[in-house]
Design a protein that fits this description.
heterodimer, A: 544 residues, alpha+beta, Immunoglobulin-like, 6-stranded antiparallel β-sheet, 33% strand, globular, disordered N terminus, B: 403 residues, mainly alpha
């Protein structure tokens, strides 16, 4: 009897606890801005808006046919939440970037996803009513609508599944069937104001207050490099997290009259922070301090951690503006050396060689900047219009063939008009060594309707992705320590074009020739041969 | 016997040329090898096959699984050995052509043997694809072997080579009917005295059965080698669906590059059926001389097949040497020769101008493929005319016209 009463009490308590958690999900919103003055006079900035929903879990695709839990959010972006629930997305990363991230000069970015153009990858559970590919299609169309970007073009002609390179950042729930990865990139997509406006709408304070008020499209899209990102993942402790980021690299030297590298919020963003966002639990600005000590920073930071100045905006009431000046420097002298390369494990160059429109050669030059051996996951995803000839894959190091440096090759050949190529492998780069990788490619000939309107411009090819790994002895590739991804610059391939004004002419000319031969052949085969006497009466002699 | 000296000398000469470094530049030429016959695609397929990737899962490898099994096990794939293999294959083709000639003339050797061998071995349309290591060389040799066995009455050998040929190239199905007629008849020239077919056509039924057995065995062997049925749409299906629009000297590629999407299936059917239309009229008209019917159908294939290379018209042109009796009746041999000369000189030039130099556009190459089509068609029509006209003979005081 006593045991039964206790059981009932526990049950009631459990229900109350569940209801309480479900009714008030503990949402947190944190914002931060990281500013880094760079070696070459430029200034990189990264806005990051992190929203987490405590105890929330991604939707299991098995439940797609059933009624979903109602969604009540206070600061979590509802528009995004609905998409994630509708297509049962566990983890998703969308980046829209413009420009070429210069790793050798700027080092690693704060956000790894800096590939030019649009890139979308998602980990999704399998099973349920809709297949992974149907949900992937739904996801990209929904995101295309949400962010006003041509993500609908990330179709099956661009979609691959490079699981080794794009490992999940968060936790994948242990459902009955394993998760699947879908990845696609569209290098010709550009990011502009129409993408930033919906991005700002996802923030609880829009661009009215807090750090987000610095997101001024006039200044951001004037930057040398700019890009936005949306990242959703499942944190094992803190539940579902969404991170909205905006990165840019400004060039104060270009924009100042005297060629100085001084910068302030007004000079690079054109705005200051008037008031802080009331729902933000933390709101911090971090400014990385340069190695040369000749600068002055205003105002005085709340705290200085080694070489990072920290400002806390939560309790600040007056408008905030930070500025950095080099008072003793009349004009900025561009450094002549490439800077210290040792902050990047790898330097990469990728080019497409050959002047022919029928074939060429892809060449990748990898330099290991560190004095230790490095393993690198190397991923190429190519639209089907470029076909690899894997038997021509060659690697040279120190002027000699080193084909043994490549291993773990996984390759999906392209299908014309349908599926892209995916080439994934692991390269071993000896310490302080440059390796040269070449592979012959052939360029496809497209139907005239498949060419873009500006066909003579060529086709943008997606960047290659490299993931440096530190693998100790008796470790496998999967267990190695991963460094952030490195994206190569994109390539432009010149494909042969037909004459776009000719379809009718070609149909007419080709058909004329065929009917001419057809007609002549059947004329000969069907009509009788007759002998005509040149003098005297006609005498027919028939054959057959 | 001149062929005893000429042929070995020619083969030796060709071997020498094939071992020069020149072929590397030719290997990627679109006129010498199509996606179905390209050597680099063959190597790619073998590489994928050896590394455990299904070569038919993508669109690069279009060769028959028979090539895959042969080259990944028995035959060598190094540059030098391949050159030797391809040249020897051409030599076999030349010998087969000579034996067809002997069978047609019913002699064991003739003074023309050397000439016929030379016509095959020195034909640039056949020579250059061999240098480019295009597998069309194998197709041509199998075609000639199949006709040779049929002419000599070796039924099983002929049917087996024909089944192999169709494995490599589906359009060769056109040759089935004339070859069966040749098997039940004989290759002797009766162009000058046409008569209704006298052979018993019912004898073809067991042959057809035998041919089906060979074909099914080869299809099953191909499936076994490649591990799935995926090779069928990737090899045979290619000529029917034309997913690869790589330029070639034929008429299909630019037509389907420029085709409106909603008409594409219709015209694909029209172009494929168009090839079949010729088979029965030609076989009925030349029922007295099935070898000539096979020759004319090879001309049709060379002009109209989906992925032709120069070696297809090359085979047709070299086979003209088998029919010296029609030469006096050709209406415009000089014009046809000059057309061919014109087209074959401008084909590589315009191809280079369009794709490498960038100073010409696609219309340049398209225009010259049209001229090439005209010259092939002219040769074909002239041969048909001469093959029919010979029946009346030459004489003074009369002219032959068509009613």
């Amino acid at each position: 009897m006593l045991a039964g009463w206790r059981c009932g009490a526990c049950f009631t308590l459990a229900i109350w606890a569940t209801l309480g958690l479900a009714a008030v999900p503990r949402e947190r919103f944190q914002e931060s801005l990281i500013i880094r003055p760079l070696h070459d006079g430029k200034v990189s900035s990264q806005f990051s808006f992190l929203t987490s929903v405590q105890d929330a879990t991604p939707r299991n695709p098995e439940t797609l046919g059933l009624e979903d839990d109602s969604q009540h959010y206070t600061v979590f972006p509802l528009a995004l939440g609905q998409i994630l629930r509708e297509y049962a997305i566990t983890e998703m990363h969308l980046t829209l970037n413009a420009g070429k991230w210069n790793y050798d000069q700027w080092g690693y970015p704060n956000e790894a996803g800096v590939g030019t153009g649009a890139e979308l990858w998602a980990w999704m559970g399998d099973g349920g009513l809709a297949t992974v590919d149907q949900r992937w299609q739904g996801l990209r169309n929904a995101l295309a609508g949400l962010f006003c970007a041509s993500l609908g073009s990330l179709d099956e002609q661009r979609t691959t599944s490079p699981v080794l390179t794009f490992a999940p950042e968060g936790l994948l729930p242990n459902w009955t069937r394993p998760h699947q990865l879908r990845h696609a990139s569209l290098p010709s997509e550009h990011v502009c104001t129409e993408n930033l406006t919906p991005f700002l709408k996802l923030l609880p304070c829009k661009s009215q207050s807090g750090i987000a008020s610095l997101l001024n499209p006039h200044q951001l899209f004037d930057a040398d490099w700019h890009g936005m990102g949306v990242h959703v993942w499942l944190d094992p402790i803190e539940g579902v997290k969404v991170r909205l980021t905006f990165q840019s690299v400004f060039d104060p030297v270009r924009n100042s009259l005297g060629g100085r590298r001084d910068w302030s919020f007004t000079s690079i963003f054109g705005r200051t922070i008037e008031k802080h966002c009331p729902v933000a639990q933390t709101s911090s600005i971090q400014i990385e301090l340069p190695d040369d000590k000749s600068y002055t920073l205003s105002p005085e930071p709340t705290r200085v951690d080694v070489n990072i100045a920290l400002f806390d905006l939560v309790n600040r009431t007056e408008p905030f503006e930070a500025a950095m000046q080099w008072l003793g420097e009349a004009t900025f002298e561009y450094p002549l050396n490439a800077g210290d390369l040792s902050h990047m494990p790898l330097s990469v160059r990728r080019t497409l060689r050959g002047s022919s429109q029928a074939r060429g050669q892809l060449s990748v030059v990898l330099t290991n900047n560190w004095p230790t051996e490095m393993h690198v996951i190397y991923l190429e995803t190519m639209p089907w219009l470029l076909q690899f000839y894997l038997h021509t894959l060659r690697i040279y190091c120190n002027g000699e063939p080193c084909d043994h440096l490549i291993s773990n090759i996984s390759y999906t050949p392209p299908v014309p008009h349908a599926r892209p190529t995916m080439f994934q492998s692991v390269l071993t780069v000896p310490p302080k060594t440059t390796i040269y990788l070449t592979i012959d490619v052939s360029k496809s000939f497209l139907r005239y309707t498949e060419h873009p309107p500006d066909a003579q411009r060529g086709w943008d090819l997606p960047p290659a992705v490299l993931v440096p790994l530190r693998v100790r002895e008796n470790q496998t590739i999967d267990q190695g320590t991963r460094y952030p991804r490195i994206y190569t610059p994109i390539l432009l391939v010149d494909l042969a074009t037909p004459d776009f004004s000719m379809p009718y002419n070609v149909i007419i000319l080709s058909c004329t020739l065929i009917t001419l031969i057809f007609g002549s052949v059947f004329n000969l085969l069907t009509r009788k041969f007759v002998v005509v006497q040149l003098d005297g009466p006609t005498k027919d002699k028939n054959i057959n | 016997m001149t062929s005893g000296v000429t042929i070995p000398a020619l083969v030796a000469g060709r071997l020498l040329v094939s071992l020069l470094p020149l072929p590397d530049a030719l290997q990627h030429d679109h006129q010498l090898s199509s996606p179905l016959t390209s050597y680099s695609r063959l190597q790619e397929g073998i590489y994928l096959f050896k590394n455990g990737i299904d070569p038919y899962s993508g669109g690069v490898f279009r060769h028959s699984p028979l090539f895959l099994s042969l080259f990944s096990t028995l035959l060598p794939t190094s540059r030098v050995t391949s050159s030797i293999l391809w040249t020897l294959c051409d030599a076999v083709g030349a010998l087969a052509l000579i034996r067809i000639w002997r069978a047609r003339q019913r002699v064991s050797s003739s003074s023309r043997d050397g000439l016929i061998g030379a016509v095959y071995l020195l034909n640039p349309y056949l020579f250059l694809p061999t240098l480019a290591l295009s597998t069309s060389t194998f197709e041509n040799t199998l075609t000639l072997l199949s006709i040779m066995f049929a002419s000599e009455g070796q039924i099983s050998a002929s049917l087996l080579t024909l089944a192999f040929l169709i494995q490599l190239s589906l359009p060769s199905l056109l040759l089935v009917v004339p070859l069966f007629m040749l098997l039940v008849g004989d290759p002797v020239s009766r162009l000058a005295s046409p008569a209704p077919i006298s052979s018993d056509l019912r004898k073809t039924i067991p042959m057809l059965f035998e041919f089906m057995v060979y074909s099914i065995v080869l299809v099953l062997a191909s499936t076994l080698v490649s591990g799935s049925w995926a090779w069928i749409p990737n090899t045979w299906g290619l000529g029917l669906t034309l997913p690869d629009l790589t330029p070639n000297p034929g008429l299909w590629w630019y037509f389907f590059t420029e085709m409106f999407d909603h008409f594409r299936p219709f015209f694909l059917v029209v172009f494929s059926v168009h090839l079949i239309i010729y088979v029965f009229p030609i076989c009925i008209k030349f029922q007295h001389d099935p070898l000539f019917a096979a020759f004319i159908l090879l001309g049709i294939l060379a002009t109209f097949k989906p992925y032709p290379t120069l070696s297809d018209p090359g085979l047709f042109i070299s086979m003209i040497a088998l029919f010296p009796e029609i030469y006096p009746y050709l209406r415009h041999p000089i014009v046809t020769t000059l057309l061919h000369l014109h087209a074959s000189l401008l084909l590589p030039l315009f191809h280079h101008l369009w794709l490498t130099q960038g100073t010409g556009n696609a219309n340049f190459f398209y225009a010259i493929t049209l001229v090439f089509g005209v010259s092939n068609g002219a040769a074909l029509i002239d041969c048909i005319y001469a093959g029919l006209r010979i029946a009346i003979g030459k004489g003074d005081g009369f002219e032959v016209v068509q009613e």
